[in-house]
Amino acid sequence: MIVSKQTGDARIPKHIFVTGGVVSSLGKGLTCAALGKLLEHHGLTIAVQKMDPYINVDPGTMNPFQHGEVYVTADGAETDLDLGHYERFTHAAINRHSNYTTGQIYNSVISKERRGDYLGACIQVIPHITNEIKDAIRQARGDADVLITEIGGTIGDIESLPFIEAIRQFGIEEGRGNCLYIHLTLLTYLRAARELKTKPTQQSVGKLREIGIIPDVLVCRTERPMTGEIRSKLSMFCNVEHEAVIEEMDVKNSIYEVPMMLHEQGLDALVLRKLGIASRVVAPDFSAWKHVVETACHPSREVEVAVVGKYIELHDAYKSIYEALAHGGLANDAHVVVRKVNSDRLDPAELGKVLGGVDGVLIPGGFGERGVEGKIASARWAAEGGVPYFGICLGMQCATLYAARDLVGLEDAYSREFDENCPDPVIDLMPDQKKVTLKGGTMRLGSYPCRVDPDSIVGRAYGTAVVSERHRHRFEYNNAYRERLVDAGLRVTGVYEEVDLVEIVELEGHPWFVGVQFHPEFQSKPSEPHPLFASFITAACAHADAKADRSADGNAHGNGAECADGRARPSTANEIGT
To answer: Where are the domains of the chain?
Structure first.
């Protein structure tokens, strides 16, 4: 029993478990986030959690091509990218208890066994592993009214069986009236037959029932609308109420349409009724969210930004970056077109052709030497052309290396990450990082304060003297080169004062050239765009307007054949160099 913040009454917390079937990558995380958004609009406090079946302790050491981005929480946990959806859509308190893996669960159980906590018992999957999973679920709910727990993987996978068994037991222990099971599945469409097929969904639910879980709600991902006949068939053969078969169509314009689509399908009302809390919630007011969706779907203008990275082939590798750019667009009533540029295939001699016409350049974080020269060249191109530039983490370091080489004259300036013996290590390891031997969870992680120069681009964007931003890196700006870089025009406008670490740099005299050592994308929401992304897109829009004005002047004099900024016209393709 916990006490409600709203009423002060004692109440039993409710739990929603979301599983997936047929195929992976159905969008369980997005569905959980959208449902959380709906429940918050009914006045409930929610928590959201992801259980991942892989054996890694966390995704921190995984290749982004395999797993996508690593999402960092404020308390320094390296987690699954779905937690980004949770934070962008809801106000849930996301922390290290919001993501557990098989590796973490087994690591905890083995540590307890080594300490003798089990009093000599034979350690088994049931009950020891399943008990640990249940403890992790209870740990994550805090004082929330409702905890939504997403179970990663696909029903039928051997890796997820302990988690499925644990949530089955959880429903018995907490009371079935306090737990709700949602199964997200795929309705496959056969184009030759021109019909949706339900058999894969039936078999997926059958697998779930074999374990002892009968889903309360069936959410069906589909590219074609369900017919009444299909809904009735699924209801009958999956043992789910007719109204509990929910259609989740592919959205046309923006993922931020999903909450309202599920609301129109009645998912939130159904969940509230089945959990027995419909009588204690408030009537939702979706007007603010509808405004966000309307702006996302029908912006008044368009602006193009190049994202220069080496993981471009996998969209999820820079998921939070792309979403934060979209949020910056929302703040400016603009649609941000992303031109994806592969940095390790980028020929510096071809920069004008590859980047020409864009109104902003963003270089995201990353690790390793591959593609770094293409990123440094892109920073140089933006600096010399007056194009808005946003460098994040490694992107900030690349901007610093450009300044060291081109403005200070240190031709051999480099990072010790890429060459331990470089003569001018403008980017170097912090002293405490030099003692680190283990790879996982040992970087500078989580939120740190940063004092911002009020008379700067970032100072004006933030509107406050001290900000807190999330980090994920080992290498830092080397203060031994600070005075020369500042004298050359690379201002230091943000500092972590406790140990005098440079957090933010800006290029003097440039309309918008900013590098930040942290990851502001992790704190951006569609309803609350991050100030730096909003400011960056404002600058990109101003750059586009200036181009249009020059183009108009050129056309008036019969000279409008080239791009407005004088560079070669770019390809119309969204991805360059891939």
So the answer is: 7-292, 299-556
CATH for 7-292 (3.10.180.10, 3.40.50.300, 3.40.50.2300, 3.90.1150.10):
3.40.50.300
| Cβ pair 136, 97 in contact under 8 A | yes
Q: What is the pLDDT of residues 93-145, one digit of tens each?
A: 999 999 999 999 999 999 999 999 998 899 999 999 999 999 999 999 989 99
Take residue 360 and report the two structure tokens written for it.
């902003």
pTM of the model: 0.91
CA distances from 108 to 57, 71, 92 (A): 10, 22, 25
| Cα-Cα-Cα-Cα dihedral sign, residues 513, 518, 522, 525 | negative
Q: Which of 238, 393, 450, 541 is catalytic?
A: 393
* Confidence grade of residue 571 (pLDDT, cut at 50, 70, 90): very low
Query: Which of 87, 132, 165, 521 does the annotation list as catalytic?
Result: 521
Q: SS3 of 555, please?
A: helix
Superfamily of domain 299-556: Class I glutamine amidotransferase (GATase) domain (3.40.50.880)
Residue 578, pLDDT > 60, answer no
* Catalytic-role residue among 41, 183, 335, 519: 519
Spatial CA neighbour of 324 closest among 377, 364, 280, 371: 364
Burial of 191 (0-12, 13-18, 19+ CB in 10 A): exposed
563 annotated active-site: no
> For residues 53 and 28, what is the distance between their CA atoms, to the nearest angstrom?
14
Asked if 7-292 and 299-556 have one fold, the answer is yes
Q: State yes or no: pLDDT of 563 exceeds 90.
A: no
> Does 521 participate in catalysis according to the annotation?
yes
- What backbone phi and psi angles, to 5 degrees, belong to 3? -100, 130
Q: Is 519 a catalytic residue?
A: yes
